[in-house]
Amino acid sequence: MDNLDSSALEELLAAVGEHLEAAGEAVSIVVVGGGALAVMGWIDRTTDDVDVIALAREQEGRRVLIPPEPLPEPLLDAVERVARDYGLRSDWLNTAVGLQWLTGLPHRFTEDVEWRRFGSLNVGFAGRASIIALKLFATVDQGSESVHFQDLVGLEPTDVELDDAAAWVSRQDRTEHFARFVEEEVANVRDALGRDRPPR
Amino acid sequence: MFETRSDEIAHLASECAVRTCWAQWVALGSPAAANRARASAIVDPEALVLLSLCVHEHERRLVDLVSWWARVGSPLTSVQRIQSVAARFPEDAGQRALASFAGYAAEAGDRRWSRHAGAGIATTVRRKGQDEPDLSKSATLWLRLRAGFGVGTKADTLAFLLGIGGAWASTRRIAFATGYSTVAARSAASEMALARFIRETSERPAQYSAPAEAWAAVLVPSEAASLAPSSAASSGAASLPAWRFWSEIFAFLASVIDWSEQARSASAPGPHVLASRARDLMEKHARGFDADGIHVPRPESYRGLGAVDALLETTRVLCGWIDEQV
Questions:
Q1: What is the Cα gyration radius of chain B?
Q2: d(Cα B173, Cα B157) in Å, to the nearest integer?
Q3: Which of B273, B302, B303, B311 is the best substitution to test chain A (most A C-beta atoms within 10 A)?
Q4: Sign, CA torsion B76/B79/B80/B85
Q5: Per residue in A139-197, pLDDT tens?
Q6: Which chain A residues are closer than 8 Å to B304 by Cβ?
Q7: Which CATH architecture is the domain B138-239 placed in?
Q8: Could you tell me if A63 and A118 lie in one domain?
Q9: Interface pTM (ipTM) of the complex?
Q10: Whether this model's pTM surpasses 0.90
């Protein structure tokens, strides 16, 4: 699988949008993860897939987010065609992160989305606060050696952003040891950023 | 850049298609094409009719040749096979060409075609020119076999087996070459083997071969015999014309022309869609290229929009091959 940088990702999304347009269809998705970081220019890195966390539908003049499974058939067809055309694996755009809906999305996630149009594909990129929250959650899950920790440090969150993210992540699992893991990872991020740990 | 490439592809494919059609019509004794280069490989009548009508906007006179053929050659043209060959062409263009030819043939009095006649390319059947096709040229082998044995799977199978110079072929390969079903090809081949017209291997699945030297003694046309009587009698297989998978190749050329017209139309889809459709064409016809041993670029070596470069190179290679092999 190729490492996709921001321009490669934008080309792939444009290709999907063109295929949807040719099929007379339109789809709106919301993207998180390395793809969102790269396209938004927050971190200069590559990724190997596009994580779709939600679909969006127009309802009474506003966008409403819903879980991404199942992805609409026209989108799956377009994604498969682009996978063939670019020699990518078939799940280069996937909904694995959609499981997050089981425990809830970060606070104000829906409002914190920046939309961009790629032909008939509308792509919402999760906002900075949401990305920080999700990256902290993933760091707690996978540890300080993971790419998520590196992303989190690369985002250089402020103390306020880290505290907000930690408050949301702590609610994902009510066990005592989980809260301790969250505190430890927040401290690790602060260490990596060269900041003092706040007094306990 | 994209437009330049699609224009170049359109130009290459249409010029090649027109040139090839003329060469094959000359081999059939067309009255309007006497001074042009003549085909020497076996002419595929159904593929020739369809391609000629698909490129009529690039060479209007090809419609006249088809209408002439409808008058003199429709009894030697297969109603069944032209439908399966048309299915390999771009859908609209193939069906329109089929309906046009059927209309001309019906107008000329061959009622077998009436059912397929429809709105097509307007013309009237030419009443001028010879009243029967000239089957003296070696490239007309297929039509000679049909004239001799009747239009059907057996004559077509024999034409293919002779055209591959005595090599062995499976029923699957015979079916791919002739456009009939595998079942029909197997039935025809096994009955001809029973009649000792062709040979059959004992292992299964069976393979078939036509003894080219023996058939050449009967089939080598007088033209070749008078030019080189000793070599025609002794060289056998070498005297028979070669088979080329024209139905696949002509369908590809028609598809490329159709693709380039899409690319230039006012309602053209975006470049990613066009590139993806270019890739579809190369993948769809890869088996035909392989069957003829044509070494075209592998589309998977070209990512994304690069498929248009692959199509350009494929068209270039193919047209060079056709000019050598026609």
A1: 20
A2: 10
A3: B273
A4: positive
A5: 999 988 899 999 999 999 999 999 999 999 998 888 888 989 999 999 999 999 888 76
A6: 11, 15, 85-86
A7: Orthogonal Bundle (1.10)
A8: yes
A9: 0.86
A10: no
